[in-house]
Design goal:
Length: 507
């Protein structure tokens, strides 16, 4: 990405125009983050309609953030060349069209392909939003509040996905969760040219297609190998995927260090506040999306809630996330960012610990309470980390910093599903016991996912169905306990790292 953030000269924006611009920028932010998790509550219906395998089900969820994460930095570089507002408009148009295609996908494979295309156009939407905020809000205090709103919308959007999805699925078919994007983007396409200034680098570096390929060759094999390892244990294929990703990543870094105008300025990671903020960003989203992957299925398939009821069960957590994200702006004026971020991560760890201790009890209240605790931690941590990422680098680096921040967010979403989701799926597959008398095809479907077991049970005699559902519920609860324990360990490690990397950062 080009290292200069140069904008077309603009008259000083009025306060009303600045905040209107922020409201418009929130539309793609909310849309992309909602799209990360809106499918969580549609998985049971998709399982029934398209009969995906366990692996296909994971890819339906995480191919979108995987492609998005791999292309954010290249699309940020392209935005520097053609204009950030222009790329926003192109991405919004493509996202709306592909959303309609995804809504009517005839098979699991077609839905995976549509989600990949959504990731492609979503990558056009995101790199410009945070860097445009840096342009619009030049006052530090105003900018911190604007970034708090941006970060809160980004984090809360992930939590709102299941709620919005639940409301839609109560009345419509699963494809309606994709059509949600169309009216939002129509409003954005009308309003954006009126209130958003154009911004681009008049002297961008050359388009580096080799770096684009290396960026994708780093993320895709690494995530694939993690999925493969979780599904079937250590194997040569998983090791090969990890090695390919690591080699591509090292090559990418070396290439950026050797170019006069790198696509991504990796030297930014030498700034402790920046690298610490990126890590917090990634781990916060990892914990949120990983939690949503299993809690959405647990609420519907274990506790028997409707999509709307399940979505509303998560509403207290969503409210807590918004309140924490905005409220932490005042707190961080008086308390060091290191302590604020560490406390936020500790809250996320407590949320996962509650699931590990009580998630398998079959009680609903501990799950809801755990999501509230985790969401408060994510809301506070995301706000502070994004402010640190943007404010800790020179203004000329804001575009690169924005792309890295959003890449960390999307990579966290990918890993949250790939790591915790794959471990949960593998644990379920090993533990579930299919009763005798079930056909081989139905037995295979029931042992793949909890949704598959529920679908198969609906076709069986009562006694056999009850035995299958009991076994599936116990297997799923056991997997949830394992993944929650991993979530505790990872967030505790991140809290320690945050204390060390952010200790010299001023409030």
């Amino acid at each position: 990405m080009a290292t200069h953030l140069v904008t077309t000269p603009q008259p000083t924006a009025t306060s009303a125009r600045r905040w209107t611009a922020l409201a418009v920028l929130m539309l793609p932010v909310l849309l992309v983050s909602v799209d990360n998790t809106v499918l969580s509550f549609a998985l049971p219906q998709i399982s029934a309609a398209l009969a995906p395998t366990g692996t296909q089900q994971l890819w339906i969820v995480d191919v979108y953030p995987l492609v998005l994460a791999g292309l954010l930095v290249p699309m940020g570089s392209l935005a520097d060349r053609v204009g950030r507002r222009r790329l926003l408009l192109v991405g919004a148009t493509g996202f709306a069209v592909v959303s309609v295609v995804a809504a009517f996908a005839p098979s699991a494979g077609a839905l995976v392909a549509s989600r990949a295309l959504l990731g492609f156009f979503g990558a056009m939407l995101m790199p410009s939003t945070l860097s445009l905020l840096r342009n619009v809000f030049t006052d530090r205090t105003e900018r911190r509040l604007a970034i708090a709103i941006w970060a809160t919308a980004f984090a809360a959007g992930s939590a709102l996905g299941p709620i919005v999805g639940g409301l839609l699925l109560q009345h419509f078919w699963w494809g309606s969760v994709f059509l949600l994007a169309v009216p939002v983007l129509v409003v954005f396409l009308v309003a954006a040219p009126l209130v958003l200034p154009e911004s681009k680098d008049p002297e961008p570096g050359p388009l580096d297609l080799v770096s684009v390929a290396l960026a994708m060759a780093t993320t895709a094999p690494l995530v694939w190998s993690i999925k493969k390892l979780a599904e079937s244990g250590p194997s040569l294929a998983a090791l090969a995927g990890a090695l390919i990703g690591l080699v591509a990543g090292v090559t990418f870094v070396r290439r950026q260090l050797g170019r006069p105008v790198p696509m991504l300025d990796v030297r930014l990671f030498r700034i402790p506040a920046f690298s610490g903020g990126v890590l917090v960003n990634l781990l916060s989203v990892f914990s949120l999306v990983g939690f949503l992957f299993f809690v959405s299925q647990d609420l519907q398939l274990v506790h028997g809630l409707s999509p709307v009821q399940a979505g509303l069960a998560l509403l207290p957590g969503t409210i807590g996330m918004v309140v924490a994200g905005l409220g932490v702006v005042r707190v961080v004026r008086h308390v060091s960012p290191a302590r604020v971020v560490a406390c936020a991560l500790l809250l996320s760890a407590v949320g996962y610990a509650m699931v590990a201790l009580y998630g398998g009890s079959g009680a609903l209240v501990p799950l809801v309470a755990a999501f509230v605790v985790l969401s408060v931690g994510v809301g506070a941590g995301e706000t502070v980390s994004n402010d640190l990422i943007v404010s800790s680098v020179p203004a000329s680096k804001a575009g690169a910093a924005s792309a890295i921040s959003e890449t960390a967010y999307e990579l966290g979403a990918v890993l949250g599903t790939a790591v915790l989701g794959s471990i949960l799926t593998a644990s379920y597959h090993r533990a579930v016991v299919v009763p005798a008398g079930v056909s081989p095809a139905d037995a295979a479907a029931a042992s793949e996912t909890l949704g598959g077991a529920a679908q198969v049970a609906s076709t069986l005699p009562d006694d056999t169905a009850r035995a299958l559902l009991d076994s599936a519920g116990e297997a799923f609860a056991s997997g949830v306990g394992t993944t929650a324990t991993i979530g505790v360990v990872l967030t505790l490690v991140a809290a320690v790292v945050a204390l060390r990397t952010l200790q010299d950062v001023d409030a």
